[in-house]
Amino acid sequence: MRNLHVRLLASVGLSLAVTMPIHAARAQTAGEGQADTDVVEPEIVVTGFRQSLARAAEIKRQAIGVVDAITAEDIGKFPDANLAESLQRISGVSIDRSNNEGNQVTVRGFGPSFNLVTLNGRQMPNSSSLQAEGVSRSFNFRELGSEGVAAVEVYKTGQADIYSGGLGATINVRTPRPFDQPGFRAAVSAKAVYDTSVEKDSKVTPELSGLVSGTFLDNRIGVLLVGSYSERNSHKDRIGTSGGWRRNRTGGRAVQIDTSAIDTSVNPTKSWWAPFTIDQDLWDTQRQRFNAQATLQAEPVDGLTLTADYTMSRFKETTQMNRMSYWFDAPDRGVADKNGTLVDITTFNDTLNYWAWDFYHKGENDSLGVNLKWEVSDSLTFELDAHDSTSKSNPDGQTSESIVDLFNTGSFVTLNGKFTDGLPAASFDASRLPGGDPYNKANIGSDLYQKRGYSMDNNIKQLRGSAEWKANDNITIKVGSDYTKYSVDTASNATFLLVNVPITNLDLQFVDSVNPDVFPKIPIYRVEDFLDIVRAQNLFTITPPQFNGVQEETYGGYFTLTMKGELGGRPIRANAGLRYEKTNVEGSSVREGLVGFRYFNAQGLQPVFDGTVAAQTLTSDYEQWLPNFAVSYEPFDKFLMRGAFSKTIARSSISAMFPGTTISGRPGGPFNASQGNPGLLPYASDNLDFSLEWYYRPGSYVSVGAFQKWVSNFIGAVRLTGPISNAAGNPITDPSVNPRPGCPENGSAPNPACVSQPGDPVVTFDISSTGNLRDASVRGLEAAVQHVFGDTGFGVILNGTLVDGNISYDVYDVSGSTFALTGLSNSANAVVFYEKNGLQARVSYNWRDKFLLGFAGAGEPVFTEAYGQFDVSASYDVTDNLTVFAEGLNITNESTRRHGRFKEQLIDYETYGARYSLGVRAKF
User: Fold this and answer.
1) 671 domain-assigned
2) In this structure, is residue 247 part of a structural domain?
3) Tens digit of pLDDT for each residue in 730-745?
4) Is residue 413 a contact partner of residue 432, using CB atoms and an 8 Å limit?
5) pTM here?
6) Cβ(163)–Cβ(118) under 8 Å?
C-alpha cells in the first residue's frame, strides 16, 4: 500500500511539554488528531500532503509556546523543492527572493539577520561573497536542497534550551534518522526543470536525488545516506538605476531645475531627486548544487543511543551580465513633480556606457555532529551533543565581481529620461558623434575595470551537555550548559582602476532590447576579453586584499521547568526557563599599512599601501539573562489558549564589527571612510505572545494570535568628521590640490611624486561607523485556517499577518536619518489542494505587501513593492511505489519592482519568467 509509517522525532526545543523522550523503536502510537500530551513521539500514518499537514498541526498543538512546522510528505519528499518556498506558507513568515528563488526568510517583520537557523538544533554558519551584501549571519536556504529534510520547525517564542540568536524566530531544519523507521527504505527522484526565461543556455536542466536507510542487528545499528544534485539556468531582465536617487546633486555646476510643481506643504525646502543612472540589463545565470548526508546510529545497550551525522553542500553560481546605461548623476535640466522627483531630466555633453559584469559564488558547507543520549531510567536522561560546522565562500580565491565599462569617446551625447510610477522612458541624441552612431566601435573607448568581493571562512564549534529529570508525571526539570565558538575570517578586494586601452580587437556586439523605450540596443561582450587587453598593455593591477575577522566565544547555561496539571478540571501546561550567556568578542583587521592617496587621474584618487602587513585588534564582552515563560490551557475540548513571555537576542552583522579603516576619495572631494565597531551589543527583545486555537477535527484548525516585541540596541549609522592617520601616524593628505610635475599619472606602479606627502593639505574625511542607538517596538496579528473537507480529498490553507512598528520612515524627512524598521510588511497565503486515490494537486498563492528594504547611497531609502506569486503542483501515484509529478513556479510571470522615496523613483524592475518541472519518483 501507499501508506508508510513514519515516526516523528521530537527535537530538543519542540518538546515543550517535556516528558521522558522514548526511543523510536519503543514509542507509543498517537491516533490521528489525538491530544495526548504524555506522548512526545507520536507515530502517524503518512499518506502524503494531507498527513504532512496533520503532523504539522499536531506539532503546533502539542507545543506550549508558539511553534509552527512543515513536515515531509514521505521519505525524501518535502512539499516544495525549496525550503524557503515552503516556509512562506507559515503565518508570519515571508521570504526574500534572489533570481526568482526563495533564499532567506523574514519572520514577523524581522529580516534574515534577526533569525537563527539551526540544523538538528545546531547553529548553522553562513558565508557570502558579494560586497553589496556585506558579511551577515543569515543562512541562505538556496544552498540546501529539501530532499534530505524531515521537517522545518519555526520557534516564534524563546526557550532557554535553544541556542540564542533568533530574535524574530529560531528555524530548525531537522534531517531524517535511520532509527526514525526501523528496517529498509529507499527513494529516488529524477526531475527535468524547464525555465521559460532562459535565452542563451539550455532551458532544460536536471535534478536528481536518492535516499537509502536501513537498520541491522535487531535494529541496534542504523545507516542513512542522502544525495541530491541539481542544475539550473535562468535569465533576468532588469531596468533600474545604480547608486539610487540623490538629493540636490549638481556636480558643482549650474543647473536648471523647474521646481514650480513641488507641493511645499510636504516638501517646504523644494528638495529634488535625480537618479545616478538609467540601466537596462541582461542577466544569464548558471547554478550547480550538490547536497549529501550520512547518518550512523547505534544502540549498543538499551537506553544508550549514539548518533553521528555529516551534512555537506557544494554550491556554484556564475552570472554574466551586460548593461547599457546613461548617467544622470549631475543633471543640467529637470522638471520636478509635486514630491520633488525629477520626472523629466536631461544631461548635456555626456556619454553612453556599455558594461560587462561577471558574478561568481562558490560555497562549501560541511557539518559534522555527534550526539550521545543515555536514558538511565524512566525518569533520568543525559545528553551530550557536539558539532563542528564550516561554511566557505570562494575558497578558490576567485573574485566574486569583475566589472568593466566602455563609453563613447568625447562628451557629445545628450541624454533624457522620463519617469512615472511604471517603467521609465529614455532617449539620447548622438548626432554629434562621428557618423551619429553610438554603436560604432570607432566611437567607443575604455573607461574602467573593478574587482571586488569576499572570500570567507565561517566556522562554528558547539558543545552541549544536559540532564533531564522527570520528578513525576507532572513535573520535568532540565538543566544544561553549552559552549559556542564562532569564527569568521574574510579576505576582501576592492580594486577600481580607470584605464585607456585600445578595444579594436574586442568582440563587442549589440543585440535588440526587449524594452526599446529605454534602450534600443544592449552591448554584449565578455569581461575577461577586455581584461586580457588590459594585461597585454601591462596596466592590470589588483589592490592588496584586506583581511578581517571576528571571533566570539559564548558560555551558556540554562534551566527549564515543565509542569502539567489541571485548572478548573481542564488540562494546563506551563514551561519556565532561564538562560545565562557570557560572550567574549575579538575583532581584527590585518592589512598593509596605509600610506595615503595616489593622484591617479583627473577624476580618481587611489589608496596606496606600504607593503608591510599590520594587525589591528579590538575586544569587548557582554552578558545576557534570557528568561522565558509559556502556558497552554485547554478550557474546552479541542480549544487552546496560549500565552508566552520571552527575551531573545540577535547579534549584529559581522561586517559592522571589523575594526579596520577603509578610505576613498576624488580630487576636491568627497572623501569617505568607514570603520567597524567590535563593541556592538546584540539586539535584545522582550516578547509577548497570545493565541487562541481550535483543533476541531484531525488536520483542521483555526488559530488567531497577537504578538508584541520591544527591541533595544538597534544598530544605526554613526557619522563623524575629521582626519585619519596613515601607518606612520601622520594625517592623510591630498596630493591633487597642488599637483607636482608629472601628476596625475596613469601607470601600474605609483609615482612617488603623485602620492600623499606631509606638505599636502590634510584631508577631512566623512567617517561612517555603527553604534547601538535606538529602541523600537513591533506588534502584529496572525490568523490561520487549515481545513480538510472530510473524505472529499479537498482542503484549504489560509493565513495572514498584519505587522506594524512604532517607528516608520518619513519619506519627506530629508534630515539624513536612516533609522527605521526594515522588512516590516503584511503578508498572506492561500493554498487549495486535492488529494485522493493517488492524485494530488495544489494551487498556492503567496503575497507580501510593500516594505522598506534598506538604504542605498547617501542614506536614501529603498522600498520593495507588493508582490504576489502563483505556484502549482500535481502528482499521480502510478503504483504504490512509483509517482509522476509536475510543478510550476511563478506561472503568471510576476515582476519585482523597487523604488526610492516615491514610486516614480525606480530602483529595480525585474522579470524572471515562469519555471516548470516534470519528474518521477520511486520508493522501495
Assistant:
1) no
2) yes
3) 999 999 998 999 898 8
4) yes
5) 0.86
6) yes
